[in-house]
Each structure stands twice: as C-alpha cells, then as structure tokens.
Queue: 2 jobs
Job 1
Amino acid sequence: MSERVYDLVIIGSGPGGYIAAVRAAQLGMTVAIVEAGALGGVCLNVGCIPTKALLHSADLLDEVREGKRFGIMVEGLSFDLAGAMKHKDAVVKASTDGVAFLMKKNKVEVVAGWGRLAGRGQVHVQLNAGGERTLAAKQIIVATGARPRPFPGVEFDGQRVLSSTDALKLSAVPKSLLAIGAGAIGVEFASMYRAFGAEVSVVEALPRIVPNEDEEVSAELVKAFQRRGIKTLAGARVESIDVGDEQVVVTLTAADGKQQQLAVAQLLVAIGILPNTEDIGLEAAGVQRNARGFIETDGTMRAADGIYAIGDCVAAVPWLAHKASAEGVLAVEHLAGLHVTPIDYGKIAACTYCSPEIASVGLSEARAREQGYDVKVGKFPFSANGKARVLGQSRFGFVKLVADRRYGELLGMHMIGPRVTELISEGGLALTHEATGESLLQTIHAHPTLYEAIGEAAHALEHGTALNL
Ligand code: NAD
C-alpha cells in the first residue's frame, strides 16, 4: 500500500492550528494535526479561556460586594478559590472537547506527539503513546505557539515564582502578589487576585502600565487600580530577585531613582513570551528565525517552500489568539490557491480583561502624531453614560477616538470601562471600512447602551463637544 500523503499537516492545535485545520477541511483537503499537549493550545488550556473564567468570578465577587447599592444584601459573603477553579476547569474542558468535536466533524486526523519537520513534505512525530510515525504532506503549517518568558536567572518554580500557567492553578489566594510586567497578563492577574483578596502590586519597566495602550488609558487604569488598592510602579528597574522559603524579595530602582525592596509571598513573572521554535527541525527545513527566535514569514504566512507558520511562533505582532486564527485562515486559503488579502496588523483589536476592562484598535494619539498625522481627538466619559450608571460602573473610563484631521478617517478607538471588550467590535468594523468620524455619527447608537459613548465621542470628534456632557 502506498504511503498516505496529506494535503496539509499542521504542527500545533492552538487557535492558529485548529482553525487552520477546520478551514482546510472546509476546502476539501485531507488534514492531520500534530499535538504534543492538550488540544486547543495555550489559549484554551492555560491562556485566554481559563483566565477569563477566573476573571468572571472576580468581577462577580466585586459586584456582589457592591450589592447593597442595588438593594441586594448578602450576609456572610465568602469566596472559595477551589469553586472558581472548578468553574474554570469546566469551561476549559467544554472548550477543548469542542476542538476535539470539530476535528472529528471535519475528519481531521489528530496525531498525539511531538512533531518535527523532517525533510521536504515530511513531519516526523515522536508519539506520546510511544513509537514514532512520519507523516507525508503536500504542505505544512507550523503553529507551535509560545510559552511564558522567565525573568533572567530566576526559574519558574510554581510555588513562589509563578508563570501565568502556574497562577491559574493555585490552591490558595496568595497573601501578597507582585506582578513583574504590566502588559495584559500582569494587569489581568493583578486585577483577579486583588478581587480574590490578595495584596497586589505591579512593577513595569516602561514609563507606564499597559504601555501598548493610549497614554490616557494607562493613566485611567492607574487611578482605577489605586482605588481598588492595587499598587502600580512604572518606570521601575528590577535589580534582583531573592527567592526564599517563605517569601520573595524584589529589589528595584523606582522611577525616582530610589531603591526599594518589596517582600511578597508570591511573584508573578509576566514579561512576555518565548517562541516554541526549538527542536522542531526549522533550520534544516530552511525556515528563518529572527534574533529572538520568532519565525519570519511573508505576507501570506509562507516561511519556506511548502512551509507556512502562524500565531505566537511567528515574528508578526500582536501575539493574540484571534491574530493566530486569522493567519491560519490566510495561510490555508493561500496554499489552496484562493485569492487572499494580507492581514492589516494595525487594525487588530486588543482586549484586556482587568477591571475596568481595556479595549483598543488602531493608533493611539501619540503614535498617530509620530506617524505624521494632523490628529483630532474626541472623548466621552462613562460617568455621563446612563447605562454605565445603571450598572454602577460609571466612576472610571471613557471612549477616545483618534482621527486624521485632513480626511476625517478614524485612526484609532481606545476604551477603558465597563464591558469595553465587547464594545470594541464597532471600532474594528469602523477601521476596516475606513470610517470617518462623520460616518460614525451617521450610525445612530441605541439608548440606553454603553456603546452610546462611541456615538458621543464621535460627536465630540466632529463638533468639538459631546451632547450629554
Ligand atoms: P506583554 O509583552 O504584553 O507585557 C510584558 C510587559 O512586561 C511589558 O509591558 C514589558 O515592558 C514588561 N517588562 C519586560 N521586562 C520587564 C522587567 N524586567 N521588569 C518589569 N517589566 C518588564 O506580555 P505578557 O503580559 O507577559 O503577555 C504575554 C503575551 O500574551 C502577550 O503577547 C500578550 O498580548 C498575550 N496576552 C494577551 C491577553 C489578552 O489579549 N487579554 C491576555 C494575556 C496575554
């Protein structure tokens, strides 16, 4: 019997890999997906999904604490971390079962093991069950993802020094927690464990927390965190980390140049990612990596002849699940010979699920100016939004629109406040369709909603001031 040749073999089953598999099957290809760990990759197992499940418990807890203002009295309120973890585990299981179902429905063969590129059109798999197998493929997609980056010289031990993966399976709420790094992971876990009752601080090397967001968003988050009792230290340099049996002592130089020592029960290191690009046969296959180990691709995700790469293991940013999925679809459609449009990486929405939430798409005000635009800005606070008041969440937050004064095109939408991770869909659509402030104004926003704040910000953008302010 001649060896089976798959149309496509994918290494890695995260939101990049498994979505690529589904799309390829839809296009009539025979597909195998190689996965050494659990189906669904980081996102479903130890990333987006479990974090958001725990953050929902955190938000609910905070809301119940505020119950009195809504006439809801709860006596003897308590929090059970194990219960929250159980909810998280159930959500993860339902999600990963969903991927298994999708693979079956689309007749994608799942091969459990470690995949390596092994010569043209070949993927060698060290099977989890023992033994090995070589898969022959017309095309290959590398979707091996990334892992948490440790602080130089300090290993993750799962006890005192935690990665985000470790922080998702604690058996008790830390007495005190320090997050190094105030990107998405740092602020999400800070927010979560503060709601669960920990003393929390966050240290960021760059001059402001959530440094990829608009400056005003960073400033608003500092205020909101301050009120929640979360200490933030931006522009700080971590000098040393001393891991003891009972505590971790972090010595840092603060923004004012003074040295400080912080002693905490547990440390979360959230300083970015390392790509999973070692030991998968890339060099021999002619796949180029950049200095930090991320795979270089062209605009159609091609990394070498017959090899595509997508998701967190590639150099293109942002490293987000929805970007990985979009790259998966793009790669598959390209290798299938369909007409494709390269991804516009500048128009991918980013959502951070701290409390208050943050969401943005496009250029911040500062970046738009750096790029030479004559910028105009429209802003509207949630304090003047009826629905935010109804929810009891009008204290912090706003919608900020950044547009080009010359042609009116919207360049960016930035939000912090209640449920903005849902509201940002309007921003994504607006930027993709090259909306202007004027065209946004012609969209009549329903009342009472949180997204009315977008219409009000558009009014401020076009007429200098909002209506309900
Ligand atoms: P990140 O790159 O988003 O943030 C890391 C932060 O750590 C940066 O602000 C950086 O300046 C800071 N930093 C680096 N070295 C430092 C040091 N020595 N001292 C102090 N600060 C330091 O990475 P992350 O938060 O670890 O997240 C990893 C990846 O996962 C990112 O790509 C992120 O976008 C993604 N992620 C996304 C979400 C979401 O979309 N909601 C949630 C979690 C993670």
Job 2
Amino acid sequence: MHVAIVGSGPSGLYTADAITRLWPDTEIDIFDRLPTPYGLVRGGIAPDHQSTKAVARAFERMLSRPGTRFFGNVEIGRDLRYDELKAAYDLVIFSVGAENDRSLGIPGENLPGVYGAAAFVGWYNGHPRHHALEPLLDGTALAVIGNGNVALDVVRVLAKTQAELADSDICEHAARRIDAAHLTDLYLIGRRGPIEASFTPVELAELGELERCDVIVDPAAIAADVGPEVPEKERKSRQRNLEILRSFGARSGEPKPMRIHVLFNAAPVAILGEERVRGLQLERTRVIEGRAEPTGERFELPVESVVAAIGYHTPALPGVPFDEKRGRFANDDGFIEPGVYAAGWCKHGPRGVVGTNRTDAGILVKRIAEDIASQALPEGKPGTGAVTALLRERGIRFIDYAAWKRIDEAEIARATPPKPREKFVTIASLLSAASVI
Ligand code: NAP
C-alpha cells in the first residue's frame, strides 16, 4: 500500500507508526510544508519544556524507518495538488494541525501590539512564518487572554530570566527581545472562573517557581471545591488547580520585580488605543450553567500589548472538504472521502497533548482498516515515483531525511551549551543548512 501523510507533527507520525504496526510493508511518504519535521514539537511546545520535546527521538525512529520517506519543503496546494496526491496514493491522511489563530472578534484586535498565540509562540520558537514578528514588548504591562496551557506557556516564557532560559532552545532573536523588555506586570485573563480553567496542574504550578516573578491571585476568587458539575475524569486535576491557585494567593516574602496577575471572570470587550494598544477593556462575568454571562460591570487594564491564546483553526486546502463553522476538515471520525482521512487537530480541533495523538492514531487506523476490509482499495496507485517526478519537473527542492539531519546537526553545532540548539528560522537558511541550495 502507498500512503501519503500530510503534516509531520505528532498526529502524522503517530499515525504513520500505527499504520506500519498493522501493515509493516506499507510505503509511507510524509510531506511537510516546512523543511523541518515534527510540527508543534519543534514550533509549538515551549522552548523551556525540553523534556516534552524529547519525544522527537521517538519520532526520529518513525521518520527514518525503511519504507518511510520525508518530503520536507513541499506544500500541498502549492507544490502538489490534492487530486495529484489522490491519484498517486492508496491512502491520503491529512495531519496538518490548526495553524491559524482564532480571532477575538472585538474592536481593536488588529491594532499593533495584539498577537495571536500561534504567531507569538511561533516567533519565540523560530517558525519561518512568524520569526520576524518583532512583537511590541516595550511597555510595562501585557495581557494574555485565555486560560489554557498555551496562555501559561506565554506568560512563563516572558517572565523567565535569561538564566532560566539558558538551557531552552528559545531563538536568539526572541531571547534578546524578551531580555530587553521592561515588562513588570503580566495579566493572565480567563473569561470563566478558576474551576473552568483548562490549565493542567503541573504547568500551572510552574508559575510558582519563577525566579523574578510573583503570582498574584485574589484568594476570594478561588472556590474551595470544584463542585458537582465537573465531569468525574476532570475532577482531580481541576481540584488540584484550585489548590495551586490558593497556594499562590497565600505566599509571602520579598516582592519580586515582576508579577503575573491571574484574573478570572473577565471577558475581553475591546482593545483600546489608536496607533497601538493602550489598554484592554474587560467585563466581569458570572458562570451560569458553564457559560460566561456578562454582568455589565466593565473595567480597564492599562496594558501595552495583548496576546490572545484562545485556540486555533485549520486553514482550508483547495479541494479538501472543509467545515467552515468548526474551522477544520469536514470529516466523520476522521473519514473525509474514500481513501482520504484526517488525524489530530485538523480532524477534531485543537485539544489534547502530544501523547493524545498516539491513542487517536490507533483508533483512526482501526477505522481505516475496517473501511479497507469493507471496500477494497482500487489497484495500481503508483506512489512515490509519480510524486517525485512531479516535484522534479516543477523544480521543487525537497528535503529528505538525510537533508533534515544535516539541518539538525548544524543547529546543534552552532548553539552555545547548555542551549541544545540554535534554530535556523528562515526557509533560505534551512535549505542552505540542508545543502540543497
Ligand atoms: P484551550 O485549553 O482550549 O484554552 C483556550 C482558552 O481560551 C480557554 O480558556 C477558553 O475559555 C479561552 N477562550 C476561547 N475563546 C475566548 C474568547 N473569545 N475570549 C476569551 N477567552 C477565550 O487551548 P490552548 O491553551 O490553546 O491549548 C491547546 C491544546 O494544547 C490544549 O489541549 C492544551 O492542553 C495543549 N497544550 C498542552 C501543553 C502542555 O501540556 N504543556 C502546552 C500547550 C498546549 P473557555 O474555556 O471559556 O472557552
């Protein structure tokens, strides 16, 4: 069987792994628009979370397995068309994630100084699309909207000292800009309450360990108990979040030069300013039946930058059925159309951690196997040869696994320890490190 997987992040690679476990002789071609593999493991996971990024070693084994080929720097919809993929492969699996920021839908969100988390995280992680963002960090106060783990990543990275970031792989351009910033007050803003926050406890607790930053929480805002509405499987972690938040509120000691203010029940209404952000208007909410209901009471924060960490959506791809309302490929449990499937965030939206993709991949491949059993695949798809010929004809300089390893080694070699790597952040410098230009 010839399989194309579009997207070499966790969902794509775990799906490739699940396929080869079930059908060891499958030929799998893994495409990525970037010259580099691993998706959010490289460009999304926080640079100071190196132990989470260590999963890349397992992905390396999947990507270098005989029968699997990497085609980096190949964009479906630009270098190869969807119908060409379908003509070449027995199975096409999209695992392209959800790269675009959801919008806040409030006045002022296009002002200079407002950034979506995909762009902001991509900036400090050296994503070629976002490396040149140069966010305005020249004020003293910045607001991060959202109560998920991405919001925690952003405040933590901004609050860390250069010493705390020394063994991270934060890109040099971002480390320098954060070091030069004069931020003293970071606001972490949830439109619902502490019970509803989707932080995971380990990540939330990290805020309490920052060298130069206190966490300010109003203890009166933290309920004693999560209450009966929280689903059983989430109770333990939500309860733990409340304990951690209370512990922040109870701290004393010498004040540190920076503060993270954790604000709950505050929904964004408008971003204020004319030429750039000068403030954020919020409205107090009450949580009623799980929803944030506005109370009419408004207040303003004098922030000079805003990062919206409120979720992502998948961009549409020419020809691939798309669900506009949900911002992902139209699919039924991963099935898009005969022979075409979706995996990961482009299938079910942006939720779950890296490991979630492993379980999901097993379920998806089981479904694919059932579909194949009930309806045999058409014979005679040509696979790699046809696609390689098209790419060569079009002059596309694709990156294979060996070329990626040249980039990998060059990035490691140019970093100053304890920094694990200094990424190349433009397509041109990546191609040059891969020796394909
Ligand atoms: P998330 O957990 O879904 O959080 C999104 C947050 O944005 C929620 O608090 C949501 O509030 C809020 N929000 C949405 N629309 C809003 C609006 N219009 N105004 C104000 N707030 C709004 O998603 P995420 O933080 O982007 O993370 C995505 C996934 O990656 C999650 O599964 C996360 O756990 C995972 N992740 C994991 C790690 C880690 O393990 N270290 C790190 C980063 C990301 P409501 O709840 O009220 O909708």
